[in-house]
Design a protein that fits this description.
The protein is of the alpha+beta class. It has 2 domains: 45 residues, no CATH class; 89 residues, no CATH class. The protein is built from 4 helices and 4 strands; from the N terminus they run ββααββαα.
């Protein structure tokens, strides 16, 4: 049988079901054959949210890339490797990398952070920092995320 995930929230003393997760749990358990061995793993939910990633990739990166190109940054950096100079053209991927590098530098870190390892709070802090940086350094206003469930119009 396929695995399932359910969500609970801690109150004062115990965990309580979030939304309709009690129903999902009951349905899953109801389908198990008698005597099934089940493993339950408890951990806190740390992962960034799908809306955070959607906002990063659908709004922040395109806005930042366009602003950098308009400011004349067709290449973000060059590297001399022996007798050859190679450049990193300004693309969504290179801008993503550059913005993460700026976030790392801001935090005094040497390694480029991985969004895969960020939790909700870390992703929010990086997003806020980059939005502020874009405004202060490139005069760009990044549209706020939509909270009404509709797509952002660019």
């Amino acid at each position: 049988m396929a695995k399932t995930t359910v969500y609970m929230v801690k109150g004062d003393v115990q965990l309580s079901w979030v939304g309709n997760w009690q129903q999902a749990y009951d349905e899953y358990v109801g389908k198990l054959p008698k005597g099934s061995l089940v493993r339950l793993t408890l951990r806190t939910e740390r992962e960034k949210t799908h809306p955070q990633l959607k906002y990063w990739y659908a709004v922040i990166l395109p806005v930042a890339t366009e602003a950098l190109l308009e400011a004349g940054y067709d290449t973000l950096w060059n590297a001399q490797i022996g007798p050859v100079t190679v450049g990193r053209k300004t693309t969504l991927n290179s801008v993503d990398e550059a913005l993460k590098m700026m976030w790392a530098q801001h935090n005094g870190e040497d390694d480029i952070p991985s969004k895969a390892n960020m939790d909700v709070e870390e992703m929010s802090k990086m997003t806020d920092f980059i939005i502020k940086w874009l405004g202060e350094n490139l005069g760009v206003e990044v549209p706020e995320p939509r909270t009404d469930g509709q797509e952002i119009q660019s």
